Each structure stands twice: as C-alpha cells, then as structure tokens.
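Comment thread on ticket #2218

A.B. wrote:
> Attaching the input chain for the structure job we discussed in standup.
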Amino acid sequence: MPQLILASTSPYRRELLGRLQHPFEVCAPETDETPLPGEAPAATAERLAVAKATAVTQRYPDALIIGSDQVAYCGDLRFGKPGTRDKARAQLRQLSGKVVIFHTGLCLLNSRSGRSHVRGVPTEVRFRELADEEIERYLDKEDALNCAGSARSEALGVSLLEWMRSDDPTSLVGLPLIALAEMLRAEGIPLP
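C.D. wrote:
> Ran it. Output below, let me know if you need it in another format.
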C-alpha cells in the first residue's frame, strides 16, 4: 500500500486528515501561492492544490500525496490569512453582513502512476453584521491570524456567522474529507 503524504504545514489540515484514521506523514511543499493575473479564485485554489501535491513528488515517488488550498473571496476581493490583528480587524469589518465564498481546492496525486484527482469544494458563508466591539472581543479570545477571512468556524468564529452552505462541512476548515475519502477509495485505500 502506498504511503499517504499530506503536502501541507497546516495544523488544521493535519487534524482533519487524522479523522480518517489512516497513517500519514506531513511534508511542507515549497509553493508560490501568488494568484496568476486574471485567475479566478476557484481556479487559484485548485491550481495551488495540484502545485502543492506536485511539489513533493520527488521526495515521495511511490505515494499518494494530498494537496489542498483555500481562497476566500467576496465579489472581486480576496481574503487571505491576515497575519496581524489590524488586518484581521479590517477583514472582519469588510466581511460584516456579506456572503463570502471559501473555495477549497483538493488534489490527490498518485506519484507512482502520475494519476491525479482534483476537485473544488465551495462553501458559502454569511457573516452577521458585526459591531466593532464584537470584533475586538472575538480577536481577544481567538487566534484567527492564520486563517483566511479571520473567522475560525471550527472554534469561536462560528459565532460571527449567520449560516454556512456546503456539500462537505470539513471543506471550510481546509480539507474536504468527503471528497478526499472518495479519492482515496478510488486509489485502493479502504475507508473504512
């Protein structure tokens, strides 16, 4: 049975993949995540998922490699990981009362055969109208600097939302497990 590799340094993706109870290793992909000129957000997420999986194939020539990337957008605006409290505050003010798409690209690459499975899983999220005091209280309690859109839905960030719509509830956290389980079964991994 081939080795399973998660081409990501995300602790959220690592935790999610652990739910499938199949042994795996983690490898950091060296990938430029800059969108291409004129590239749609969904296309960016899916291209980067493939790029991340491909980036580690030389180190793992006989493995099933998982790449994933997420792009959050509202209209023409993209929302990445804020990195600082000021940027998180600004993001949450911009997202207040709006519907945001979190498009998660997923790739499972069989490095032995070269076969890949690629899928995009969108999640629509509507943010509540957020008062500045609510944003500050949230940022005091939640480390949201390393997640797109500054709202960790699997934690306190869910309190900022009115609703979420997706075919895969784990997609918003960054790794769509329903789609991934289907891909792994197609590559001969018995789940469960």
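A.B. wrote:
> Thanks. Noting for the ticket: The beta strands are 3-6, 25-26, 63-74, 77-79, 99-110, 116-127, 161-166.
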